[in-house]
Amino acid sequence: MAVNDREPPPGGATRYLRECLRLLRWGAGTLVTAWRVGRTGSLPVVLGLVVIWIVFESIDTDFLSARNLSNLSVDLVGMGLITVGVIFVLLVGDIDLSVGSVSGLAGAIFAQLNVNAGVPEWLACLIAVLGGAAAGAVHGFFVARLGVPAFVVTLAGLLAWNGLMLFILDTHGSINLDDQGLVATLTNHYFGNALIPLGLAALGLAAYLAVALLGRRRRTVAGLPGPTLGAVAVRAGLLGAVLFGAAGVFIGFRGLPLSVLILLVTLAVLDFVLRRTTYGRKIFALGGGIEAARRAGIAVEAVRMSVFTVSGAMAAVGGLFLASRITSVGQTSGQGDLVIDVIAAAVIGGVSLFGGRGTTWAALLGVLVIQSIASGMALLGVQVAVQFMITGSVLLAAVVLDSLSRRAQRSHGRA
Fold first, then answer.
1. Is the pLDDT score of 20 beyond 80?
2. Can you tell me the distance from the alpha carbon of 326 to that of 307, in angstroms, rounded to the nearest whole number?
3. What does pTM read for this prediction?
4. Transmembrane segments in this chain: where (predicted)?
5. How far apart are CA 145 and CA 280, in angstroms?
6. Domain spanning 43-192+254-411 has what CATH number?
């Protein structure tokens, strides 16, 4: 055969297509394997969130506008802070139904002290948070020391702390906060300089790469299997797209909200506490089995009391952010469907109701799903009843996935 009659080698486009198909096959195989062994992680939540955004954007093009996404991010901060406290309780296999009332109580304490008694804002905030922590410690005492079921204790707390909030507000009904004060600033201040969100995005990506590569090196030295450099690069690329995409959204509308920065820092700090400290390992140990943790020498009662204290304190902090958003505290503060949304957000984000599995970042994912549904429904003018039905369906789907995941892990000897 003549040289000119030979088939030319495949061009660059063909090689690119083949490489894409190879990556798709690898990704599909990885997903199937992860599903079979119950280790899908947060992927179902992320995919669900993408579907929600695509659906709402196709119906109303204002949904993914910089203005709406920025407002959505500020709206979710209060609930997100409360959710991350509830996650500590869920990780040990308990539940806290009182967080809504505790958040309202903290707002009432702050308003009464600052507005009516003239106490400086910083001191009133501190007292309010300490009050929330004290309420959580009371719950923890009855649950850990006296053995009363957490469901009953926190349900009683839901009623009792709501009553105390109404008593503190007395005849005022509602108390308006200073719209130029410290608490109001929490959700009303924006960093307008574009370099700030871009710099923080770069810092976050660099921190992730440093932690991932250091963890991989440690596992390699210890002779344990770890993620490949390719997997780390893919995750870093996806995280970078999210971080710089969020930075672009904030730059497009007023800048980076202070409240969002506080939420992200809080999640990062508490994630470090759970994953990198002895205290965090004790929490996961309790979630794996209280009796086994006791036999391992863990002070079970002290740890259980502490997680309820953390939950109460974070509920109080979240309550201050909720009050900041509307610059007032009223008799309905912390009521309604707040406690349901908070627990639903934790479960939707990937925290197991059976204890022992979850991260603080689940608060961000879960609240983002719930707030996205709420925001989309508001833009479309859909009734609240429909929103409840959709949120309930998403919650049920998350619990079913959690149950199936645990069953798959048990069948593969991982649970």
1. no
2. 29
3. 0.86
4. 41-60, 72-93, 121-143, 150-169, 189-214, 226-250, 256-274, 305-326, 338-354, 361-380, 386-404
5. 21
6. 1.10.3470
C-beta of residue 79 within 8 angstroms of C-beta of residue 319: no
pLDDT digits (tens, 9 = 90+) for 185-234: 999 999 989 999 999 999 999 998 998 888 888 888 888 777 778 878 88
Residue carrying structure tokens 């390699």: 220
Task: List, for residues 256-301, the tens digit of each pLDDT value.
Answer: 999 999 999 999 999 999 988 999 999 999 988 888 888 888 899 9
For residue 262, how many other CB atoms are within 10 A of its CB? 16
Tokens of 168: 């503190």
Tokens 């921190």 identify what position? 207
Can you tell me the distance from the alpha carbon of 246 to that of 265, in angstroms, rounded to the nearest whole number? 15
**Cα–Cα distance for residue pair 200/261, rounded to 1 Å:** 9
Euclidean distance between CA atoms 293 and 279, whole angstroms: 12
Give 94 or 377, the one with higher predicted confidence: 94
Bridge partners of 190? 257
Q: Can you list the alpha helix ranges (DSSP code H) found in 277-381? A: 278-288, 290-295, 300-326, 338-348, 361-380
For residues 269 and 314, give the distance between their C-alpha atoms in angstroms, rounded to a whole number.
Answer: 13
- State the pLDDT at residue 22: 60
H or E element that contains 330: strand 328-330
Give the position of tokens 């906060």: 177
Confidence of residue 8 (pLDDT cuts 50, 70, 90): very low
Cβ-contact 349, 366 below 8 angstroms: yes
Give the phi and the psi of residue 373 in degrees, each rounded to 5: -60, -45
> Dihedral angle at the C-alpha atoms of 358, 359, 362, 364, nearest 10 degrees?
170
In terms of phi and psi (left: phi > 0; alpha: psi -120 to 50; beta: otherwise), the region of 181 is: beta
> Strand pairing partners for 328?
176
**What are the structure tokens assigned to 198, written together?**
């871009």
The CA distance from 48 to 16, in Å, is 29
Q: In the structure encoding, which two tokens stand for residue 31, read together?
A: 């997903």
Which secondary structure element, helix H or strand E, spans residue 45, and what is its range? Answer: helix 43-59
Beta bridge partners of 256: 191
How many other CB atoms are found less than 10 A from the CB of residue 258? Answer: 17
Does residue 267 contact residue 363 with C-beta atoms inside 8 Å?
A: yes
Residue 355, helix vs strand vs coil: coil
The length of the chain is 415
Question: Are 394 and 369 contacting, i.e. CB atoms less than 8 angstroms apart?
Answer: yes
* DSSP H or E stretch at residue 174: strand 174-176
